[in-house]
Amino acid sequence: MLTTIVPLIGRRLIASIFILLVVSVLLFLVLHVLPVDPAAMSMPPTATIAEIEAHRREMGMDQPLWDQYAIWLVKLLQGDLGTSIHFKRSVWGLIADALPATIELAFLSMLIATVFGIGGGLLLFASRGSYAEPAIDLVTIVLLSIPEFLWALFFILIFGVALNVLPFTGRLDADLRLPEGSNFLLLNALFSGQFAIFWNALKHMVLPCFALGIAFSPAIMRVLRSSLIDVYQDDYIHLARLRGVTETRILLGHALKNAILPTLSLMGVQFGFLFGGTLLVEVIFSYPGLGSVMVDAVRNADLPIIQAVGLAYCVVVLVINTVVDTLYLVLNPKLRAQ
Amino acid sequence: MSILAVDNLEVSARIGTARIPVVSGLGFTLQRGSVLGVVGESGAGKSMIGRAIAQILPQGFSVTGGLSFLGQDLIGMPAEQRRMLLGRDIAFVPQEPLSGLNPVLTIGAQIDEHLARLGIGAKRARRDYALDMLNAVRLPRPADILGKYAHQLSGGMCQRVLIAMAFASRPKLLIADEPTTALDVTTQSRIVELIRDLQRSEGTSVIFITHDLRLAADISDQVLVLYAGRLAEYGPAKEIFADAAHPYTRCLQLSNPSVHASRIGLYSLPDRMPGISALGSIAGCLFGPRCPNVIDACREKTPRAVSVGEGHDVACIRSDLTARIDPPLRQAIDKKPYGASLLTVESVSKTFSMTSGIFRRTNFQAVRNINFTLQQNEFVGIVGESGSGKSTVARLLCGLETATEGKLVLAGRDVTGGDKVSRQHQRAHIQMVFQDPQSALNPRRSVASIITQAMEAAGQATWRDRLAKAEALLHEVGLPSDAALRFPSELSGGQKQRVNIARALCRAPEILVADEIVSGLDVSVQAQLLNLLLRLRSERSFSMVLISHDLAVVRYLCDRVFVMHKGEFVEAGPTADVFDHPQHPYTESLLAAVPRDFVADAARRDRRNGISPADEIV
């Protein structure tokens, strides 16, 4: 198995380098032709034109665009993402603080989307031909058409405001302090034994994660249902039945393992979208992740941050795609042979 | 003791509000250790018997009548009790071995699941048992096979695995539904032999479902011939084949070409078996509309099965006239004289190079140093097993591949190079008829538009011209002109293949390359198409390279044959010589794999004695 997986990952790494280069050029060009003037914006309103020009030179923004790109790229490769114009902090530090929070949010949401998606898909499939089918079908279509930010608002209104059972701002209650060490709050708290903090952080994640997870699960449900229906046309299902295998075992032991393959490739794509979806949800829940950083940066035309966060999103999506393709290879023996 | 007793079995389908009996009035008993062959064309309801026994039917189907297995009523018993019988006392072998195994589970995991269900204790014990099973079906290196997936094995190997699983529980009844149809000729005979050996040593009763009458006669004790879900004829296998009493059985025999027989014409039954929706609209005998012996009395009521011999029943009121049905005279449909040489293939080879891993390249020689010539109006056959390189030859001739060595001269022009002009020249002279009419016809195009694609490619032609041309071609291939505006999905398999042929004829090519064009079609449809090709040749004159694994079809159509094995022509010559006196061991093994042929033997005797086949068989 390793003999096919290692070359795949190798090929992906090489391709990823090219993709990241192209994305970096695009990001850089688009941001630099925008009619904003970061140099002027970062100076106090009382600054004179001469002072702004001096600052512009200091930032290297009087150079030709390609030179600016080259300098940025070289620094990037050295691990220097530049300094935030607005926060006057290293961009690397900002991202290192925010990215783990977003990754935790996205993974937990994906977990919820997967559980709901696969469970719902099985339920949809099991209801085929029954009187409940059109009703369940309608529910999934309604779910499919509600975007994540609307779920976020519903949940805040219902569980946060009306019932007041769950928190809906930030990662922790104000009286708790972030523990030392890694910013993967849940893991960190769990492994350092700070269960009160773990519990509190988990409660803060319930609403944003369900908002994202539920928004992304209906598509998984429907694809799983239709691929199960396809798989049930296959001879080996019929033959298993003729061999006296029980229906439950046919579904879970034979059909699901085949039907999960198309579902998995959809989930790969979905996870990319979900990661993008964290941006809105983080803003709505004032959750201090990459999305919040990005929105602040856009508001302040903080180009170094925008560029770096854009690249970070890109890296995450590439990693997810590679992981999904590897999983696909592990689960599908036919691909392994080639 | 009887293993299975079937009495007045009826399987009906609900269509709208009506219930239409797809299988009706079926009755037979299966004795311990005996083999029943169930024969009929597709749609005859053969598979419904197996499905009715397992009570696993498509939605909307229901079963009534008597169905008793070892004295237990299969229809009345609770589903859970019936499920316990399946895979234990009643086992199945499917038609498509490759798709009968779950693609994402190893062979070992699937066998293990089955053995665990049979209650064979510990995992270790199950593994040992599995290895014994695979040994019993003569699979080499069983330990390796346990770790493999279905796609890593050949069709024949998969079928052996499935047969091993079916026999694992020493079942009382085995239902084999066309277990060899999807396999190569030589594999077919080995699989049949395996089933027969296991059946004998275990004393299993077998229901062997097949469309191949010869095979059924060869393997079975009794044969049941089904037509449109009704019993046509039931009796001792050898007797039915020596002396068919139902006109349908007789017509099937006469429409099936033979490897050894002289080339008597094939009987082509008109039209095709009525589908489920048409069943209700036929009065009296369902075979009536296609029967050569039909009289008014046949249309009055459904014929009852009457005995015509010891344990031999026939549902026909004129069975005494069956033997009078004669095949058409070969001369009536036979060929034109050969003309000039059209195509010369000189020492042609084709090597494919494939990438394996990241950098490694391996070469695979699909075709090795082949030579042949083709004259005007000549039909030649290329036979061999799958993977022998037959289809690569077809692709080389049509210009879909370029030869790596050798020379290809077509109508006086060297087309080896594969440049644009050569390709155009090839397309003008050679057209291909593809194997699978289902996927060869674009489902979103009307028949007229498919047939006249060549005119579209050439430009100019108006839709009116194309429609007129399409109607003319449809007429030639024996389809009604109103088919022109229909879509492929509205046609039957045989009709699609006719469209496929019409499309190839559109540019009036001098050579047709036909790749397995009748495989997968019913014998009666096959006979219609084979006769159509002979008639077309006499009407419009063209040559054909027929690529087939079916030796009998090649014998019927082609004067010369090339036997292909591992990319090489191992034997070549006039078809009659090669098939009657094979020189190469590979040709011998191909011929040995063909089931013995009672009718052909009879026909050969007739020829010698100078009497017509009909007289002797009476």
What can you tell me about this protein's structure?
The complex is a heterodimer of chains A (about 350) and B (about 625). Chain A has about 350 residues and is mainly α. Chain A has one domain: MetI-like fold (Orthogonal Bundle). Chain A is about 75% helix and about 0% strand. The termini of chain A are close together. The mean pLDDT of chain A is about 85. Chain B is an alpha/beta fold and about 625 residues long. Chain B folds into two domains: about 250 residues, 3-Layer(aba) Sandwich (Rossmann fold); about 260 residues, P-loop containing nucleotide triphosphate hydrolases (Rossmann fold), CATH 3.40.50. In chain B, the strands form four sheets. An eight-stranded mixed beta sheet of chain B has the order 6-7-8-3-9-10-12-11, sandwiched between helices. A six-stranded mixed beta sheet of chain B has the order 18-19-20-15-21-22, sandwiched between helices. Chain B has a four-stranded antiparallel beta sheet with strand order 2-1-4-5, with helices on one face. Chain B is globular, with a radius of gyration of 26 Å. The C terminus of chain B is likely disordered. Chains A and B meet through helix 10, helix 11 and helix 14 of A and helix 2 and helix 4 of B.
Task: Kindly list the characteristics that best describe this protein.
heterodimer; A: about 350 residues; MetI-like fold; about 0% strand; B: about 625 residues; alpha/beta; Rossmann fold; 6-stranded mixed β-sheet; 26 helices
Topology (SSEs and partners):
The complex is a heterodimer of chains A (338) and B (618).
Chain A: H1 2-33, H2 38-41, H3 49-58, H4 65-77, H5 91-126, H6 133-144, H7 148-162, H8 185-191, H9 195-231, H10 235-242, H11 247-284, H12 290-299, H13 303-331, H14 333-337
Helix pairs in contact in A: 1-13, 5-9, 5-11, 5-12, 5-13, 6-9, 7-9, 7-11, 8-9, 9-11, 10-11, 11-12, 11-13, 12-13
Chain B: E1 2-15, E2 18-31, E3 35-39, H1 46-54, E4 61-69, E5 72-73, H2 79-85, E6 90-93, H3 97-100, H4 107-117, H5 123-136, H6 142-146, H7 155-167, E7 173-177, H8 185-202, E8 205-210, H9 213-219, E9 222-227, E10 230-236, H10 237-242, H11 247-255, H12 296-300, E11 306-309, E12 312-314, H13 330-333, E13 341-355, E14 361-375, E15 379-383, H14 390-398, E16 405-410, E17 413-414, H15 420-429, E18 430-433, H16 437-440, H17 447-451, H18 453-458, H19 463-476, H20 493-505, E19 511-515, H21 523-540, E20 543-548, H22 551-557, E21 560-565, E22 568-574, H23 575-580, H24 585-592, H25 598-609, H26 613-617
Parallel strand pairs in B: 3-8, 3-9, 6-7, 7-8, 15-20, 15-21, 18-19, 19-20
Antiparallel strand pairs in B: 1-2, 1-4, 4-5, 9-10, 10-12, 11-12, 13-14, 13-16, 16-17, 21-22
Helix pairs in contact in B: 4-5, 7-8, 19-20
